[in-house]
Each structure stands twice: as structure tokens, then as C-alpha cells.
Specification:
The complex is a heterodimer of chains A (404) and B (366).
Chain A (H helix, E strand, L loop, with lengths): L12 E6 L2 H9 L8 E4 L8 E4 L1 H4 L9 H7 L4 E3 L3 H16 L5 E5 L2 E5 L10 H14 L4 E6 L2 H8 L7 E3 L5 H5 L12 H9 L5 H5 L3 H8 L3 H8 L15 E12 L2 H22 L3 E10 L4 E12 L2 H15 L6 E9 L6 E2 L5 H24 L21
Parallel strand pairs in A: 2-4, 7-8
Antiparallel strand pairs in A: 1-6, 1-7, 2-3, 5-6, 9-12, 10-11, 10-12
Helix pairs in contact in A: 10-11, 12-13
Chain B lengths: L1 E5 H12 L13 E7 L2 E7 L3 E8 L1 E4 L2 E5 H10 L4 E5 L5 E6 L2 E6 L16 E6 H12 L13 E7 L2 E7 L3 E8 L7 E6 H10 L5 E6 L3 E6 L2 E6 L8 H4 L6 E6 H12 L8 E6 L4 E8 L3 E8 L3 E2 L2 E5 L1 H10 L4 E6 L6 E5 L5 E5 L2 E2 L2
Antiparallel strand pairs in B: 1-5, 1-7, 2-3, 2-6, 3-4, 4-17, 7-8, 8-9, 10-15, 11-12, 11-14, 12-13, 13-26, 15-16, 16-17, 18-22, 18-24, 19-20, 19-23, 20-21, 24-25, 25-26
The chains are: A alpha+beta (404), B alpha+beta (366).
Chain lengths: 404, 366
Amino acid sequence: METSLPAWTDRAILHMDMDAFFASAEQLDHPEWRGLPVIVGGSATGRGVVSTASYEARRFGIHSAMPSAQATRLCPDAIWAKPRFERYHELACAVMEILTSFTPRVQQVSIDEAYLDVTPAGHADTHPVEIARSIRTQVDALGLSCSLGVATSRTVAKIASDHDKPHGITVVWPGEEAGFLAPLPVRALPGVGAATATRLRGAGIRTLGDLATLDPVSAAALLGSAGPDLVHRAGGLDDRPVGEDRRVKSVSHEHTFSTDIRELPEVEAVLRDLVERVAARLRRKGLAGRTLTVKVRHADFSTRTASKTLEAPTDLDTDMLPTARALVRSVWTPGAGLRLLGFGVSGFGAAEEQLGLFDEAPTEQRRRARSLVESIDRVKERFGDDAIGFRGPEPERDGPDSGD
Amino acid sequence: MKVSIARGTLLEALSTVSRALSSRTTLPILSGIYLSSQGDKVVFQATDLEISIKTSATARVEEAGQSVVPGKLLTDIIRSLPEAAVTIDTSQPGTATISCGQSNFTIKTLSAEDYPRFPEVEPTDTITLPTEVFSHVVHQVSRSVSRDETRPVLTGILVIVDSGMLKMVATDSYRLCVREVAVEGVVGDIELVVPGKAMEDIAKLVGSSQTISLGVSENQVVFSFGDTTFISRRIEGSFPNYRQLLPKEYTTRAVVDRAELLEAVKRVSLMAQHNTPLRVRISSSDHTLTLSANTQDVGDATEDIQVTPEGEDVEIAFNHGYLLDGVAISESDTVAIEVTSPLKPGVLKPAEGDGFVYLLMPVRLG
């Protein structure tokens, strides 16, 4: 595959946009809704508007921001779902995790879209188009779908991601920007709204090609101070950097089972593994979090999460395990089949700490626990994750004694 | 057993012993209240095996006997009745009939033979205190009692009576409260740790009784007031040496009107959400004590109080709940805040005199 791709030496910007994100999330959590028109928004009879319509619903002509009543007229049988933003946020975090695994230079611009700067630094670096394909595959694995644009600038990447929706990857190769943009209507350019488009139409400008040829003085006269910038971008000239959004909000890991698991020891063993992985990643990133979240997906695809906030931030698996276990038990009963188990840590805010009068004793214990996990981290770094770990026959207490 | 008793008297007795009703489902008998008639009295008992309460009330006893009646249900029934004479009749085996006016209830009873015997405590030391002083001091220190069972001794209140002084100490390891009062005419000396929950219950139950006596045995302590006997186990283990924890000096001290401080802490605390701390800045040059709080994504608040501090300028942060508790239970008109450093405990005490110290550990800012 790689060999068939022409080399990419220019700046490479990816724009990732989730496809019908909220509606897809609802179809993910409600398997019985898949393939059916799903509308996320107020209610069929209410006065609200459509927030997101699934692609099945879009075939009826329904789109975002359409009044509910009109959507109901177009598709009386549509399934209406109340938005569950917490759940969408959680899924968005999982998507962002995928993105940050390719490059730290990720800028999330809204809950369902982000820019990545994947400019290759040397020939060993993964080709931008390969990265786009991997991202799409990994987002597919979450049970969601995204479209991507690959280009040399943010503007072109953004327009490209919208070019072949859903589930498309549109590549605008270096040098092809102007040709790609020229035939598109002016409204395709981010920053051109209805009012600007009307004004441009009045001046006989309908396509981005028309707009790109406008001289800066006329542009300023027609569009005000934003004019020259729009003209530049219409020609594919845009050197705005991807603003790095390096504030990691959560670190999580999850495991999907090829066959459902249902026994407590099995679940606890997987949980322990997830907690260890997440804690090790926190330590590698130098983070400590307070909020622990456990996610389970049952055999019927229903997904549940449970969270608890600890007294103090931590990056130690031993601090997390008892709470993680309790959280799992709050959303899962031993014997019931589990498709997926996930564990995550968030809440990396300033590590304020309530000091105690009798702090000395636990501190010593913690110091020893920390030095132990740090040694384990070093072994894993050298010999791989499976080289060492806590594997007591009885996943009960997590003291150093239970390991070997 | 068949007795008649005024509804109000009965309800008071039931409410008193109900504090010892067990919620443990493994021992259903402990969900019952043991009733027995003696002379012209009905005796009520309940226990959860941690505490045992016995009280009595005057009644017209037509037939002596005893029975164990489901405690919560009985109390709920009596509470629902109008103010009149209530008859409890247990002559039908296994049932109790409760009649009042036109209302009749028949409820299944539990076996009186299975009910645990009321503990007999033979105190080695006994002291008597005015109830008003006792319950007031309990009220002050009980906020600082730990709810964390992993250090059992901190779930108790250290009670010391020595040389005419009553002292109670409680700490949850984040704050420590010491209250000391002189009690006229008190004889004897004792030192023990009593579960905080039991002390709070007793402080609520003493009601109109003039005095309360504490009888201390090796493992238990018996509190007697009015017609009521309240027995609790003592908490074993040594209470932390609180004297060692009290700072000997301070680098900054500010004296504040207590009511003003209380209101300010309450206001600024509204912006100390999700456990964010409340900051206290004391500045000699500005003559202010500034309280501030800032919750991310919510907002912030500040309030200045005019003071004349002595010592260095300092900023220290506390859990707002702990600070609020401390200011609320101080009773002097003015309080002194003493601080040594942002990571050392702060102290609240009366501006003048002693007998009350509330020490609170700071929050280290991230």
C-alpha cells in the first residue's frame, strides 16, 4: 500500500470530522436502531430542532437545525433520541485518544472534529494518507464513523473532509489545492456564511475559483477586513498552524472480547490489566487523575459507565483498583455476559491536596508502592508489557505481597 | 402483658430507645423493642449490640408480662395516633394489639426469650455532670469526629474529667477540636474514648434532665439521666496525643468578629465547589483578611474583612466546610486566626481566654 503512495514532503494537515456523530452514538448504544432513521434532538412533537440526523434520516431530507415539526412531516417514522451529551463526550474522548496516538499536534475544534498536523519529518514517518486510513479504521472499531480530509492546509483539509461523507477520505495532493477548490461554491469555504455568499453573488462571484482571483482591495471593499484572508484561503493559501491542544483530558483503555466473558475472576483479571495499563500511561505522561470511570458493554450491546472521584489525584494502580472493582460491580452482575470492559482516569486539574495531621505513616507506604511500580514500568519498557506484573491467584488485595 | 399509657409518654420512650434499633438484617430480633411491665411502669429496651438503651414510663398495668414488638412499625403507629390513652395487649401469643380510640392494630411480635439481656455494667468510677454543659460540649466537638472506620479511635470523642475540668477532644485527622470547661462540684477523674455517634445520641436525648452521670467500667460506659440508661462500648486504642499537635507559636495572627467571619465564609464558600479550597490571605500592610474561592468553569468570589493583623503576610487554603464548622462552633464574639505557614495547621480560638481550640490542616494548592 505504502509503495503506491506518492511521497509527501510538504506540510500535511488532516481534518477529521465524525459522521452524524450523535446519531451514530445512539445507533451504537441501541443496536436495534441501526439502519433506521434516527434523529437526536428535542422530540418529534416538541418545538425544538434537529440536533443530528442519521444518514438514514438524511435521505428523507432531514438535516441539523431543522425544526422538529418539519422533520416529523418528512419522516413520521423516525426514531427520536434525547441527546446524552455525557455519553457523546465520552465517545469523543475515545476518538481524541486515537488521534493523539498519532501525533501530539492535535487541535480539537468541537466535540466531533479535529485538526492534526502530521507533516512527515523524515522518510521513516508514516505517510499522511496512511495515517488517515488508520484513523478511519480505528474509529470504525469504536463502532463510529468519520470522514477525513488530507491536504497541505487547514482550510483545504476541512473542505476535503466534507467532500466524500460519510466514511470518506479525500486527499488533495500538494499543488492540487487551487484546482480542487476552484469549482466549489463559495459557501464551501469556512467563514463564508449566507450573508457573505449573497454579497459575493451580487458581485458575480459564485465559486471559490472566482473568489480566489479577486484582488485584495476589492475584497476588502466587498467583505471588510476579513476579505483578503478569505481570498487567500479560497486559493488554498492558508498557513495557520494547528493549535496544539495538549491538555490531555483523560487516559483510558478498553478491551472488547471476542466471546463474551461472564465470570468474576475473569472480569477482575481484565480489569486489573486495564488499570495497570492506564496507570502506567499516566506515569509515563506525568499525570495524576482523580476521577475513575469504568465502562461495560453487555451482551445486548447496552453500554453503561460508572464514575467515582477520589479524594486525591493518583497515578498508582493500587489506589485505583479497589474503586475500579466497586465501579464494575455497580454496573455488572457476575454471570451476565460482557462484550467490552473499559477503564479510564480523568480529572487532571491542579493537584490540590488536603493535608492530614497524621500523614507520615501512609506516606512511607506510598513511597514504597511508588518505587515498586516505577521499577515495574522500567522492566516493561525494556522487555514489553507482559514481562512483569501483579498476578496473584486471588485478585483481592493489591499489596506488593500479592505479586511475584 | 396489658398496659395503658398516654400516647405522648409512650412516643417519647419509643423514640429514645429507637436510637439503638439495629438495621442489621442478620439478627431480626434486634429490630424489635423489648417491652416489659414492672409495678406501675413499662420498661423499654433496644440494642444493636454496640449501644443499649433502656428507659421507663409510668403506665396503668393491667397484666404483667413482656414482649418484643417491631420497633420502627410500633413507633410509626404510635406517632400516627391522636393524643389519647393507648392500650398495648400481648395476651394473644405472637401478637400485640394496639388500641387507641377507634383505631386498632394487630402486629406480629418477636420472641421475648430470644431478646439479649440488658448489659449489666459495674462502674469502677462514676462522675456526675450538668447535662447542659455536657451536651453543649458534645455539640461543639462532635463535628470533628471521624466517620472513617479504618482508624476506629478517631470515630470517638476523648472525654477527660480531671480536677474539676471537663475536656472533650475529637479529630478526623484533618481538623482537631479541643473544648475544656470548668465544672463546679464535679468529683473524681476519668479518661476514656466514647463513640462519637453515641455521644451525639445522648446529647439529643438528655432533654430536660438536670444531670447526667457517667459510670465507667473496663469496656463499657453507662450514661444515666432521668429514667434512661444508655450503655455504650468504649473505644479501645490510644487517642492521638493532641497536645503535641497544637502549634506552640504563630507567625501571623488576626482577630476577627466571629459573626462577620461566619457570614463571609458562607458567602465565599458558594464558589468553592467540587472540593475546591477556600483561600485565606492575611495582609498586615492592607489591614485585610481576604477570603477567596475559585471553581474552574463556574466562577469565583472574594471578600475582604478589615482586620489589624500581627505578623507576616500569609496565604493559606482550607477546606471550606472545615473552616465553616470551626467558625460556627466557636462561641466567642471575636475569634483569632493563627497561622505559621501555608502547609502548617491553622488555629481558630477565642480572641481572649482559652478553653477552645480548633485546629485545621490546610489544603496544599496545586
